[in-house]
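Worked Example 4.2. Consider the chain below.
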Amino acid sequence: MQATREKSPLIRIGLRKSCGIALWCLLSACAAPSAPGQTSPKSNTAAPAGATAFTPDEQLLPAARRGMFELLNGDPDGAMRIFQEIERGHPDSPLGYLLAADATWWKIYLTTGNLVDPDVFDVVSKATSPYDASFETLAQEAIHRAEARARAKQDLARSLLDEGMAYGLLARFYGLHDEDLPTARAGKKMRALLLRALQLDPNLTDAYLGVGIYNYFVDTLPEIVKLLKFFIGLPGGSRELGLQQLELAATKGDTVRGEAQFYLAKDFSRGNERQYGRSRQLFHQLAAEYPGNPLWTLVEGSLEIRLGHRDPGRELYRQAVEKSAAQNTDVGRALHAQAQQALGRLGS
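Applying the procedure from the previous section yields the following structure tokens:
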């Protein structure tokens, strides 16, 4: 496993003790052949002409919510089936591709990331995963369809939201691979798109996941951010505003509420925040809302251990081992292995 680094959600999702983690943050609530911030290439799988009438995102949200529940409840494959149904039924819409990319990103993170370290979101043990190629394709498809809708002035605010969230996923992906400059470019593009979406429709609270993570981490990350501000004109941020925006997404968000709770809990557990009680409360809430996902129990246990509460932490690790034991999937096996390792490190 590579050396531990603090990474962030827009850039990486967590922050460790090095600048690399800095750039994950510029994301967060796929990859592309061209640099983020440039016009994306034309899709190889454009929607068939006249295949489906335009359907606003609003009509697809009930299915999107069901899929996000499955994803956060520990079943990314089940979530993917729902998102693929949206793709097939509404191939002109970016939403199905965006959510499928999100589900694929979680599979990459859960099968390659360091899930136990409380300071780090995405320290990967492998340079690549079997899911990378499909992740990149899905993210680019989401961007392509969102751009097409925006040009046609169809569902404009939500089209900008979808495109911005897709660039956020790109930033997560690049951050996982320690590609700081592409991560920052994707984060910058994400920020601009989400702010435009909020100008058009202030009720799109899902956008606050991305802008909140951006604001928080750009204001709290190390020297690398100063360099990026100089080289690519990376806009500044605000720690306090970022936390407020994340809390808004975590309490009033639509499809991103659970993800916002996760990122907010991670931020509260950082050494510069030390709001451990609030972090623990959020992790516990996630475990209660999504009981099928051993990840929430595992990260709650890691926080207890960090606070010196060995017995509660050990018990949570045991629960995570038991929950993941019967999950015969790549994600389930990876979670089970990490829970066993975490429990084993505590000894008898």
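The radius of gyration is 19 Å. The chain has a mean pLDDT of 84. Compare this with Example 4.1 before moving on.
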